Amino acid sequence: NYLLRCGKLLPSGAQPCDPAYHEQVFRHYHQLLNGGDIRSASLLCAGILAGFKPHEAAAVVSAALDAEGTNPGENELYGISIALGLAVRPSLRRLIDFSAANNIQIWIVSASPEIAVRAAMRRFGLTGNLIAMRHRLDHEVLTPTLDEPHSIAEGKVDCIKRYIDGSRRPLFAVGDSVYDLPMVEYADLHAVVERDNALTQEARRRGWFVLPS
Questions:
Q1: Contacting residues for 108 by C-beta, under 8 A, at least 6 apart
Q2: Is the peptide bond before 144 cis (omega within 30 degrees of 0)?
Q3: Which residues make Cβ contacts (< 8 Å) with residue 48, sequence separation at least 6?
Q4: pLDDT tens track for 58-85
């Protein structure tokens, strides 16, 4: 929908936020993902909210959630196949509900923008504390600069130590991507979501819990 307001998201430097720029940002993001550079991809993903005020960004995310719907499928944008639909995995909802009922602290640790994850948590009625990518503000406007440590891959463990407890490991950690491996490995008990990916294979090799998707 050509919503970008920050023209400094690409290595080439500042440029107008015209339709061509939006396509370039989208394609660059997928190039980073396909190249395995999850850190740069996550930073770029968070950067797309730069230029918005927090309440404006939250409204954009809410509209995106409406457009996505809850039925998983596929769509195409600029000739690239993308996932469509967002839904909470039933096994994880049961785990969250069980933990809350037994006074176990719940922390969601995400490499996505904090504003986006909070909007999704409200939409799906998920309880818990949140660690995610946080923008710095300039005159009440989100900037491309994000607070460190970044909650990406190994950085998730750094965030757990800084924001939860610097000495005690989490009781239990769940992940669904190979980039969650450091966080899951750091906990006392380990679980992954069945996605038939590299993390699932590693979990089975190590004898970890595998939750149905």
A1: 117, 121, 126, 128, 129, 130, 131, 132
A2: no
A3: 4, 6, 9, 25
A4: 999 999 999 999 998 999 999 999 999 9
Q: Please, are residues 85 and 70 in contact by the beta-carbon 8 Å criterion?
A: yes
How far apart, in Å, are the Cα atoms of 172 and each of 56, 105, 106, 189, 203? 35, 10, 10, 5, 14
Please state, as a whole number, how many other Cβ atoms lie within 10 Å of the Cβ of residue 108.
Answer: 19
Q: How far apart are CA 43 and CA 47, in angstroms?
A: 6
pTM value? 0.92
Instruction: Give φ, ψ of 80 to 5 degrees.
Output: -110, 130
Angle at which helix 54-68 crosses helix 114-124, to 10 degrees, equals 50
Q: Residue 195 in contact with residue 127, Cβ under 8 Å?
A: no
Helices of type H across the chain: 19-34, 38-47, 54-68, 90-101, 114-124, 154-163, 181-186, 198-206
Both tokens of 176, joined, read 């669904």
